[in-house]
Specification:
alpha/beta, D-Maltodextrin-Binding Protein, domain 2, 2 domains, three-stranded antiparallel sheet, 14 helices, 15% strand
């Protein structure tokens, strides 16, 4: 028979084991979502090179699998994250900020890392030089119209021209279309007269005779993060090994883009079914304006506007408030 001291030792050991051990098994499958365009190249590389599975095996989850979906805007992505049917979302950094603002204190949506800083163009069939030239006869397409990062850039430019009270001046002529559909609609010559497009779609529009009205870098005063990937604090807390695998895969994919552009370009061309050339894609990746980096750029400038316009209630003072600690060592702003 065990004496009192031995019984207490056994009980304490059992208690510590229960406290330190996992309360539930981690997910067997991680559901990740990407969207259209070269800006999502880190995620495309993660998919094609099976980097999440690779890092999951290293972390002790050899059976972890991934499910990948493509969605055209952030609304269903954020709905899926909140419901727990999606684990990692991606899209314009503005919808991520909006989700962060609205989920504080519950599921806690935060950024895993920025995907890229790319200049995106507002292009038009008309030779406009300013957003002040648009009329109620125009129709401007963009992905996630009304809440996307393109929306924020256009509204920021309108606030410069007319004052913050008029930042929604052109909202009535916005049309919600994905980048591919927006380009097709613009080139059709019918209802859509302008589109706010991301690479490579903006370049195709210019090649077809469209006019550049505005660049996002004009609005932001230089390179600014356009896209990001995000998840929930709930998923991170309940699946620390799977979450770490995603982060490590994201970092490896970004490093590949910056150290082996040729391979990155080849992966992108395969993913798009050969619609792009490897040489042209590699040229885009070499453009110093196209930056693939997990550290967000000019995010506080964006969130200051979003707060001033009432799009978000919170006013963050550091980008780190909106991102998981795994990237806090990076030099963002």
């Amino acid at each position: 028979m065990l004496d009192r001291r031995a019984l207490l030792s056994v009980a304490l050991g059992a208690s510590l084991a229960s406290w330190n051990g996992p309360t539930r098994a981690e997910v067997s499958e991680v559901h990740l979502v990407r969207q259209f365009g070269i800006g999502y190249l880190p995620l495309t590389i993660m998919l094609h090179e099976k980097l999440v599975e690779k890092h999951a095996a290293k972390a002790g989850l050899p059976s972890l699998t991934t499910k990948w979906s493509v969605l055209g805007n952030a609304v269903p992505i954020n709905d899926g994250l909140i419901a727990g049917t999606i684990h990692v979302g991606s899209g314009g950094i503005a919808p991520m900020v909006t989700a962060w603002d609205r989920t504080r204190g519950n599921v806690g949506i935060l950024g895993i890392g920025a995907l890229c800083a790319l200049p995106i163009f507002l292009v038009s069939r008309h030779p406009y030089k300013s957003v002040t030239e648009f009329t109620d006869q125009d129709r401007i397409s963009m992905a996630g119209a009304g809440q996307s990062i393109q929306t924020m850039y256009l509204q920021m430019e309108l606030a410069k021209a007319y004052g913050i009270a008029e930042y929604k001046k052109l909202n009535p002529i916005f049309v919600n279309l994905s980048h591919p559909d927006g380009l097709m609609a613009l080139l059709s010559g019918r209802e859509i007269t302008a589109s706010f497009l991301a690479p490579p779609f903006q370049y195709r529009a210019l090649e077809k005779g469209m006019h550049k009205v505005l660049s996002s870098y004009d609005v932001m005063g230089g390179p600014a993060s356009f896209l990001s990937a995000w998840s929930t604090s709930k998923f991170r807390a309940e699946n620390p090994l799977a979450f770490k695998a995603v982060v490590d895969a994201f970092k490896e994919a970004t490093l590949l883009i910056n150290t082996n552009r040729r391979k990155a370009a080849e992966i992108y061309v395969v993913d798009t079914g050969g619609k792009e050339s490897v040489e042209e894609t590699e040229k885009q990746l070499a453009d110093p304006e196209n930056i693939f980096d997990l550290a967000p750029k000019k995010l506080i400038k964006l969130t200051d506007f979003m707060n001033a316009s009432g799009t978000i209630k919170s006013k963050p003072t550091s980008w780190k408030e909106m991102f998981f600690p795994e990237v806090h060592d990076l030099a963002g702003d």
